[in-house]
Design goal:
Elements: E1 2-10, E2 13-18, E3 21-27, H1 31-40, E4 45-50, H2 51-54, H3 62-72, E5 75-79, H4 85-93, E6 98-101, H5 103-107, H6 110-119, E7 124-131, E8 134-137, E9 142-146, H7 147-157, E10 161-166, H8 178-187, E11 192-195, H9 201-210, E12 214-217, H10 219-223, H11 228-235
Parallel strand pairs: 1-4, 1-12, 4-5, 5-6, 6-7, 7-10, 10-11, 11-12
Antiparallel strand pairs: 1-2, 2-3, 7-8, 8-9
Helix pairs in contact: 1-3, 9-11
Length: about 240
């Protein structure tokens, strides 16, 4: 199983939010410095989110993120504010390993096929952000139907992987809710990366046992509740 340290960017700073609420942001400094720290500790991939984009300012942080992609040179999955085919193609052309499309995927599902045909399925990750079993869109402010149904549809359209985030536990550092994770992994055949609640070695072990392809470490990693070294060791 892969481990993806999160580098979430808001206003040019690396931050962590609680359940996607902007006012809950805790800042941790320069995004490139944070990324470098995790790479120095053994990470070989990063999960980068443009939170300004998710909140509606898609162009903000673009230069900073492009610089981070270039300077780290590692596998990066990127999401946040990718609301059009043009946005998606722009980021794929910068050399990011894969993009995460969430709201756009529910508004224009055919875009997944278009992008997969042009760039390859492996570079297209569909976001399945679940809130009470429903897929959450528009910065997690609205819901748009059963998360399992959407996940299967994304797979059928050509997404190469899924990012599952349980919004109900995201940022709370209280552990993973495994039942919805297992239901999703059993429902599709493509790799699933899990975010939300990963707070201990036991969580990492449980996700590996459930068949998750990867796990995103966010708030618990930055607060010190779980160390990157422990998470990586649990994956072996």
């Amino acid at each position: 199983m892969r481990i993806f340290p999160a580098v979430d960017i808001l206003g040019g700073r690396c931050v962590q939010l609680v359940q996607g609420k902007r006012e809950s942001a805790t800042a941790y400094g320069n995004p490139l410095d944070c990324a470098t720290r995790w790479l120095d500790e053994g990470a070989d991939a990063l999960h980068v989110i443009n939170l300004d984009g998710a909140f509606g300012t898609a162009a903000k942080n673009a230069g900073l993120i492009a610089d981070l992609i270039k300077k780290t040179g590692v596998e990066i999955e990127l999401g946040g504010g990718i609301r059009s085919l043009e946005d998606a193609k722009h980021w794929l052309d910068t050399g990011v390993s894969r993009i995460i499309i969430s709201t756009l995927a529910t508004q224009d599902p055919a875009c997944i096929r278009t992008l997969a045909d042009e760039f390859g399925s492996s570079r297209i990750m569909a976001g399945v952000d679940a809130k009470g079993g429903q897929i959450a869109v528009h910065g997690w402010q609205e819901t748009a139907g059963d998360y399992l149904g959407w996940a299967k549809r994304f797979e059928d359209l050509g997404a190469g992987s899924l990012l599952y985030t349980n919004v109900d536990v995201e940022g709370l550092q209280q552990g993973v809710r495994f039942e919805p994770v297992k239901r999703l992994i059993d429902h599709v055949k493509i790799p699933v990366v899990v975010a939300g609640g990963v707070s201990s070695r036991q969580d990492v072990f449980g996700l590996r046992e459930a068949g998750a392809w990867g796990a995103v470490l966010g708030s618990s990693l930055y607060s010190g509740k779980i160390s990157l070294t422990d998470a990586l060791e649990e994956c072996k």
